[in-house]
Amino acid sequence: MGAYVIRRILYAVPVILGVLVLIFLLFFVYAGGAQNIARQVLGEKVRKEAIEEWIAAKGLDKPLWYNPRASGLGRFEETLFYAHMHDMLTLNFGKSWRDGDDILEKILRRAPASLSVAVPTFLAGLGASVFFSLYLAFVRETWIDRFGTVTCVAMMSLSILIYIIAGQALFAIVLRWFPVSGYRPLPLGGRFIALPVLVGTLAGLGGAIRFGRTIMLEEISREYVRAARARGLSESRILGIHVLKNAMIPLLTSAVLSLPLLILGSLLIENFYGIPGLGSMGIEAIQANDFMELRALTFITAVLYQIGLILTDISYTLVDPRLRLR
Amino acid sequence: MKALFSNPFLLDSVRSMAEVAVVVAALLFGTVRVLRHPVGRGRLKQIFSSRGARVSFGVLLFFLLIALLDSIRLPVYEIRAGERRIVKTETLLEKLYHPAREETLSAPLATVTLEGYRSRPLKGRHILGTDLNGNDVLLQALKGVRTALIIGGLTVVIVIPLGILFGVLAGYFGGRVDDLITYVFSTIESVPEILLLICLMKLMGQGLTQLCIAMGITTWVGLCRVVRGETLKLRELPFVQAARALGAGAFSILRRHIIPNVMHIVLITAILRFSGLVLSEAILSYLGIGVEPGTGSWGAMIDQARNDLARDPVVWWSVTAAGTMLFILILAANVFGDRVRDVLDPRLQGRRV
Known about the structure:
The complex is a heterodimer of chains A (326) and B (353). Chain A has 326 residues and is mainly α.
C-alpha cells in the first residue's frame, strides 16, 4: 500500500512540472516579454523610464532561458525560467502587482472564505446527487423517472450565470430568505454562505444526478443484483446497500473530476455574492492584469487537482484491493 | 477591383461569411459522408425516429438560419458631396429587422423610456425592450446566436482533426509516442479549464478567433483521451490484427480500420462538447474577456444588464432574453446529442437509458 501511494505521488511530479512550464510559456514567453507585460499592466501612456523602473522592480529584467552575461551555472540560474520554477516550487509566489501584498499570505488569508463555501457545496452536491439518482433508479421506467430525467437535462442546459442571478433574485430579493450578498466568518456567517452553497449545489445537480442514474442502472443490470433478488432481499435494500456501494467508485471519481467545475463556479459565485475568497481574488486579478496572482492561483489549483486525483486513486485501492497490483 | 479589396468593410464581410462557411461546409461534408453510407442512413433514420431529436434538430437549424442571416453583410451607402461611399456594413438580419435606436432603457412594449422621472417618448415599440444604450434587446439576443454557433461550431471543427490524429497515434503506436501525448494532455488537463481559458484570453486579447483558439487548446484534450482509449481497444481486435498479419502498413490500418471505427465516439463527444463551449463563451464574455465589445454575445448582455437588476423597477428583460436564448440552444444541443449518443454508442445498444 505504501509503495503504491509513493508511486502514485511520483507520477504526479512530472505533471506538476509540466504545468509550471506551461504557465511559464503562457505568462512569460507568450506574453511577449517584459516590455509588453509592463504596458499591459501600467497602460499605454506611461513614460519609458517608468516602465524600465517597473520591470527592474518586478525582477523581469532577466533573459528568458539563458543568460550569456553571467558565468558558470549563473547562465541558467539568472534567468526568468529558473526564477519562476524556483519561486513556484518553494511556494514563494512573490508580491502582488496590484497592491504589493505577499501573494501566499493573501491566498492563506482568503482560503477560509472559499473553503467555507466550496466544502459544503461539494458535500451537498454529492449527497443530493446520490440520493436523487438512487431514487430515480428505484422508480425507473415510471413517469417520475422520465420527469426527473427531463428536469436534469433542463437543469444542465441552464448557464451558471442564470443560476447565480436568478438565485439571488428569487431567494434573496423576492423571498428574502438570505442576505443579498456579503460575508462573515463561519460561526456567525452561516446565513451569508447558505445562498452561494444552495446556488452552487443546484448548478451542478442536473448533470450529477443524470450521471449517477446511468451508473446505478448499469449496476442494477449486473449479476449480483439478480442474486440478491433471488435471495429475497427487498428492492430498497438492494439499491440502498449493494448497488450504492458498487456505484460509489465511479460516483466519487466524477465528483473529484468535477472539482474544476467547482472552481469555475466559485469564481463567479464568490464574485457575484461578495465572498472574499480565492475565486473573487482570481476575478480581481483578471481585471487588474495581475499575472503574478493569476500564476499563483493557476498553479495552486493544478496542484490541488492532482492531490484530489491521488486521493481518489488511493480511496479506490481501499475499496477494491485488486487495483493495488497495477 | 483593387479599391474593393482594400475596403475594410468588404474584408469584414468576407471574414464574417468565411467563419460561418467553414462550419456549414463541415456540417454538409459530414452529412454527405453519413448519407452515402447505408449504415449511416439507417442510423440517421434511427436518430430522427424520436420526436425530441426532430424538434431539437429543427431548433438548431433555425438558429443556424439566424446565424447565416447575420453573417451576410451588405454595404450601406451614403451619398456625400455627390459621391456614393460605403459608410458601414449591415447584416441581412439587421436589414430584415431594424428597430429604432433609443436613448436609453425602456421596458418591453413600452412607449416611453424608463430613465428617471423624465420619461421620453420612444421612436418605436420594442418587443423585448431596450438596454441602457438604447439598443433593441431582441436584436441583440438574435445577434448572440451567430457568436454562440461559431464558437461552438468552429472550435469543434478545428478540434476534431487534432483530437483524432493525436488520439489515434497515441493509442495505436503506444510506447514513447503514447507517453508523450498522454503527458501533454494530462498536463493541460490538470489546469482547471476555466483558468486556462482565462489565462489564454487574457494574453491573446478579446476576439472571436482568439476564443476559438483558446477553446481549441482546452478541448482537443478530452477528444484525444476518448479516441486514444477507443483505439487501444480496437488495436487488439481480430480484424485489425488480421490486417496487420496481411502486411498492411500502419497508416493504411489507421485510415481504413481505426479511424472509421472511432468516428461514432468523435461525433458523440463533439456534439455533447458543443454545449459546454457555448456556455464557456458566455462566461468568458460575462467576465469581459470573451468576444470584443460590439459583437453580439449573451454573456456580454448578461454582464451589461447585471447592474440594472438592482434598479427599481427591476430591469429583467435583457437577462431574461439572453438567458432564454442560451437555454434553448443548449437544451436543443443536449437533447440532440443525447439521442445521437443513444443511437451510436454500442454500449447502450439494446436498452433504454
